[in-house]
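pinned: reference chain
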Amino acid sequence: MLSFLLLVVLVVIAYFAWRIVDQLPDIVYRLGEIQRDVAEVRRLVEPPEQGADDTPAKAEDAS
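pinned: its structure tokens
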């Protein structure tokens, strides 16, 4: 009787592990989307840092 209960518990654990592994690609994709959205909101809210502009370096113009 005990071995049957252990078998049932093992099957239940294996099922839940399989369901979690099955959902991992979707979870990773959604976390990436959330990270991208948070970075975009952070860029919009924070003031730009001084000296970190998008213009090319002045060394190119000197030559």
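why pinned: The first helix runs from residue 2 to 45. The chain has a mean pLDDT of 86.
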